[in-house]
Amino acid sequence: MAGPLSGLTIVELAGIGPGPMCSMMLGDMGANVIRVDRTKAHVMDRFADPKFAVHNRSRRSVSVDLQRKEGIDVVLRLIAKADGMTEPFRPGVAERLGVGPDVCLQHNPKLVYGRMTGWGQEGPLAKAAGHDINYIALTGALHAIGTKEKPVPPLNLVGDFGGGGMLLAFGMVCGLLEAQKSGKGQVVDAAMVDGTALLLGGIYGMVGAGLWNEAERESNTLDGGAHFYGTYETRDGKFVCIGSIEPQFYALLLEKTGLKGETLPAQTDRKAWAQLKSRMAAIFKTKTRDEWCAIMEGSDVCFAPVLSVSEAPHHAHAKARNAYVDVLGFAQPAAAPRFSRTKEGIQGPAAKRGQHTDEILGESGFSAKEIGDLKAAGIVGPQ
User: Fold this and answer.
1) 1 domain-assigned
2) Hey, which of 20, 156, 195, 253 has its CA 20 to 30 A from 70?
3) Is residue 348 within 8 Å of 57, Cβ to Cβ?
4) Are strands 330-333 and 324-327 parallel, antiparallel or unpaired?
5) Domain that holds residue 290
6) What is the CATH number of the domain that holds 290?
7) pLDDT per residue over 31-90, tens digit each?
8) What is the chain's alpha carbon radius of gyration, rounded to the nearest angstrom?
9) CA nearest to 91, candidates 130, 66, 126, 124
10) Catalytic residues
11) Considering only CA atoms, which of 230, 213, 215, 208 is closest in space to residue 270?
């Protein structure tokens, strides 16, 4: 059965990080996503086998030389029949190439034009280079995450993907829904600084209410300061995590660690947290990770083993939910979220650069002669 976005066509100008994740999500939901790749090898071709480029799955690839007018004309013809498009460039680059929003909306007034950047389309930093770590630093997120000694980047999950790719995917779907009512397209400005700030909304609330200590990391409930919310090493050198915030869950934690009945400081006594963390650390070191799983997993302690990326697909819960799927012998996250009627699903592994050039151009109204001439001139097709 077709996914919830079946029937929609999205043209993606190829980029890295959040843009590809957005397109993967749209493709996994059934959209016909056309990725416009470069004609020549690029840093984006980081994997010798494209099947490992998980965020490039669920779409086809056409390669086009965007540095030449004839290539831009090809893209504009693709856009003319699309419902939406996304571009990953710094502000002004798409305009200089000839595929800015004004031009594209002239060719297709119903087009939803998504722009994915770190800093946004306006502001003094808008045209500066940057990466996830820089964008989350400007929002307060990086300052809040890490050890007492220094901030630590949380991979590139917060800016690139949570505050970037998912933000753009949400914006695109909102724009597409509105276009169905109004018959008009518009520009979606998705900036990682904006998305990351939204993710921090709850922390901003706690800071405003005086419930969060910004002066010192690892001194708050959710940043590793509390003995009942954090990770602990086990006897075999692995780790487990607990999140026993609520009093009833904390009581169960004390029971299962053998501390029930002892005279202990109050759970919320921050002055005692360091002492209680040391006590907990010593207790968790007495058993292996698997032994603690047997004691706590599935209980209301709010417990989980800390699994590696290689371990996660093999956990019983992941298997029961089919949370990971095999694509060409490679386990990767399944499509999400899940729908009861219009089923989501991976449409295929990541394509090789330009793999579907002839097919896509033919579907878009290019004649066999046009395609042959464009390929001969190096305008389309992998070179």
Assistant:
1) no
2) 20
3) yes
4) antiparallel
5) 229-233+239-305
6) 3.30.1540.10
7) 999 999 999 987 767 787 899 999 999 999 999 999 999 999 999 999 999 999 999 999
8) 25
9) 126
10) 131, 160
11) 213
Same domain, 299 and 336: no
Sheet of strand 229-233: strand arrangement: 229-233, 239-243, 303-305
Q: Which long-range contacts (CB under 8 A, 24 or more apart) does 146-153 make?
A: 146/217, 147/217, 147/218, 147/224, 148/216, 148/217, 148/218, 148/219, 151/217
Output the DSSP codes for 129-151. ---HHHHHHHHTHHHHSB-SS-B
How many CB atoms neighbour CB 246 within 10 A? 13
pLDDT in tens, 134-176: 999 999 999 999 999 999 999 999 999 999 999 999 999 999 9
- Smallest CA-to-CA distance from 85 within 186, 194, 196 is with 186
Contacting residues for 206 by C-beta, under 8 A, at least 6 apart: 212, 220
Q: Quick one: tokens of 80?
A: 């003319």
Whole-number Å distance between alpha carbons of 59 and 24: 7
Distance of CA 84 to the CA centre of its chain: 20
pTM confidence score: 0.95
Q: Are residue 255 and residue 193 in the same domain, yes or no?
A: no
Please report whether residue 90 resides in a domain.
yes
Contact 297, 305 (CB under 8 A): yes
Structural domain ending residue among the three candidates 274, 305, 336: 305
220 in a structural domain:
no
Q: Is residue 116 part of a domain?
A: yes
- What is the number of H-type helices and E-type strands within the chain? 15, 11
Q: Are residues 195 and 280 in the same domain?
A: no
